[in-house]
Design goal:
The complex is a heterodimer of chains A (348) and B (111). Chain A has 12 helices and 11 strands. Chain A is an alpha+beta fold. Chain A has an 8-stranded antiparallel beta sheet, covered by helices on one side. A two-stranded antiparallel sheet of chain A has the order 6-7. In chain A, β4 and β5 form a beta hairpin. The longest helix of chain A has 28 residues. By secondary structure, chain B is α+β, with helices and mostly antiparallel strands. Chain B starts with 12 loop residues before the first strand and ends in a 10-residue tail after the last helix. The chains are: A alpha+beta (348), B alpha+beta (111). β10 of chain A pairs antiparallel with β1 of chain B. The complex binds zinc ion (ZN) (2 copies). One zinc ion (ZN) binds next to loops of chain B.
């Protein structure tokens, strides 16, 4: 476990920021880029993959303060920790040979090397701030383009291994916390409208589909023929609309006496478990932290913790984070106990 | 209630996932949930519209990329191209697919 020191670092994007932060935790812009003279990673020999990795690492010398990590040098806990931190994809974690990641200061910038494309540059920003995230990713792409020649043509734009990413190579996404819409059952009607807008929804870890803690990612589904500005505006606009719907549903829940009583009961029960339990699985932590967060966003008096604290706990209670903190591999039961202790300490 | 995954153990964990932009729910046992834990499911490589294009058989004279040697039929199967030159080698077919998956777009716009 080499990344032990990273566990203590604060995570820039968990800071509650902006008027939409109740429902929009963070925004991410990802740019796919490939080197023009090489087959895509899926068709490269191990040796060629390594030379792409070397080239990309050399070019990232120009990114100030960035740390370069070869995934084959890391153990499983380190790699899962990076997935939990949203710095690498589950796919990169599963295939570490000749794969790497460059991480910028504050962990808001990451450059994955030899994922589906040679380079995946991504930037995270707190709250609803896709333009800020895109600005950071585009600036990094410009820096890298000083030493690397990207595959690009006028008619198709940036060339990618999968044609769904072709064009700008941009995937703009927002991580939304939607407990009221989820519990009221109206979430599916909202998500069903996304494809018509050229968008889609995914679960917490992006590439997969699992929903935990009522957290959803919405993003553009491909973007060929649409400009960066159009894509950013489409995702921002939808995220804003969904955030408004969440706020309205939450206000409705708390305005009628009967549903107010039930909602408050759920929120304070969750707070009670989080501040008292001795064994908590990650799945259970997510469920209760989501309810606690709902209560904090609604400003119910008498709850433990703060939004910033709960945002951090959603990250730090993940399994590899618990192991990283202890600096050793743990059984699920040991993790559940340490997770419960950690939550009690932080919410005290 | 029994686990929706193994069908043997008692369900202990309630899981939600998104399939085709809809939230679905399943109850799993502790072991299956731990196995599903952080690891996410495989990414959908689904390209809408691809299945409606007639198949041509792979073999003698089958379309192949001059840059990396990828057969067009391999792309059809996996959804992945092999190299930047594939976009030249398979240009007409790709333009038809792009128009279909990207709402009629045939040309790149943006920086
Ligand atoms: Zn099971
Ligand atoms: Zn090719």
């Amino acid at each position: 476990m080499q990344l032990h020191a990273m566990e203590k670092l604060s995570i820039g994007w968990t800071r509650p920021k902006g008027s939409e932060h109740g429902a929009v935790l963070c925004s991410r812009a990802r740019l796919a880029r490939n080197l023009e003279d090489k087959p895509f990673p899926g068709r490269l020999s191990p040796q060629d993959l390594k030379s792409v990795l070397d080239e990309a690492f050399a070019a990232s010398d120009d990114l100030k303060g960035a740390a370069k990590l070869r995934l084959s040098d890391l153990d499983g806990t380190d790699r899962r920790f990076l997935v939990e931190r949203h710095l690498i994809s589950p796919d990169l974690e599963a295939h570490p040979a000749a794969r790497g990641v460059v991480i910028g200061t504050g962990e808001t910038l990451s450059l994955m090397v030899n994922e589906e494309d040679h380079l995946r540059i991504s930037a995270l920003a707190p709250g609803l701030s896709l333009h800020e995230a895109y600005g950071a990713a585009a600036a990094a792409a410009t820096v890298l383009s000083r030493r690397l020649r990207f595959a690009y043509r006028e008619d198709f734009g940036y060339l990618t291994a999968c044609p769904t990413n072709l064009g700008t190579g941009l995937r703009a996404s927002c991580l939304l916390h939607l407990p009221a819409l989820t519990h009221s059952g109206s979430i599916n009607a909202l998500l069903a409208r996304l494809p018509r807008l050229g968008l889609n929804a995914r679960g917490l870890y992006g590439e997969g589909t699992k929903v935990m803690g009522d957290l959803y990612q919405i993003a553009n589904a491909g973007g060929f023929g649409r400009t960066e500005g159009e894509l950013l505006a489409a995702v921002s606009e939808s995220a804003r609309r969904i955030a408004l719907a969440e706020n309205k549903t939450r206000t409705d829940l708390l305005s009628r006496p009967e549903s107010k009583r039930r909602t408050e009961d759920s929120v304070f029960r969750a707070a009670g478990i989080l501040t008292n339990a001795r064994l908590v699985s990650f799945e259970e932590a997510c469920r209760h932290l989501s309810l606690l967060r709902l209560g904090l966003v609604s400003e119910l008096p008498g709850l433990p913790g703060s939004l910033a604290e709960v945002n951090m706990l959603l990250v730090q209670t993940q399994p590899a984070h618990i192991e990283m903190r202890e600096n050793r591999e743990l059984s699920p039961a040991e993790r559940d106990e340490l997770r419960a202790t950690r939550i009690r300490e932080r919410l005290d | 209630m029994l686990c929706a995954s193994c069908g043997k153990n008692q369900a202990a964990v309630f899981i939600q996932e998104i399939v085709n932009n809809q939230v679905r729910e399943a109850s799993l046992c502790a072991a299956c949930a731990e196995a599903a834990g952080v690891a996410a499911g495989p990414e959908e490589l689904f390209l809408p519209g691809l299945s409606t294009i007639p198949k041509e058989a792979r073999g003698e004279g089958a379309p192949r990329c001059s840059g990396c040697g990828l057969f067009y039929s391999e792309f059809r199967k996996t959804g992945f191209l092999g190299c930047p030159t594939c976009y030249t080698s398979f240009k007409p077919a790709l333009q038809r697919i792009l128009a279909r998956i990207h709402h009629g777009a045939v040309r790149h716009r943006g920086s």
